[in-house]
Sequence to fold (187 residues):
Amino acid sequence: MVSEPRKLWPALAVRGVLSLVFGILTLLWPHITVLALALLFGAWALLDGVSFLATAFRAGRAGANWRGWVPPLLGGLLGIAAAVVTVFWPAITVLALAVVVAVLLIGVGVVEIMLAARLRAVIRGEMVLAIAGLAAVLAGVAILVWPAPGIIALTMTLGAYAVVAGVLLIVAAFRVRALVARHGEDR
Fold:
């Protein structure tokens, strides 16, 4: 997948827009209930997971080695697993939801850092995706270490991360798109 940047940038853009929308919604309505947050988070995790799986599938079809399709496959499975947990147990406690969110953020962050390392082989100096991955890992660790009492703290932390990650993913998508345009691969 990384060897074909023209196929990578749309997936990054979609993930960025989804993350940005999710983050803005959570920041606009911080007083939402645990049930609403769980369902909103579940929808976001499902869409993010499906996006990762599509990336893994395309990389596999393109004949990429395991390093090209396993990281997005793992990210996709983590996203879908998190979505399933939140749909089947929507009334889970704030602490349980915090753990689910934190584990997903850490997992997705590690996957994004791995993808950034692969992307760096194609684009010299490209670190935006790695920064988004690091932000995910840091947000996940912060939620695990300080599972603040109350849904507002979780909502604000998750919303802030999603907005930052969304912007960074969109920037990464446009950088990859610019690379494609410069090298004439978009034709």
DSSP finds six helices and no strands in the chain. The helical segments are 5-28, 34-61, 66-88, 94-120, 128-145, 151-183. The radius of gyration is 16 Å.
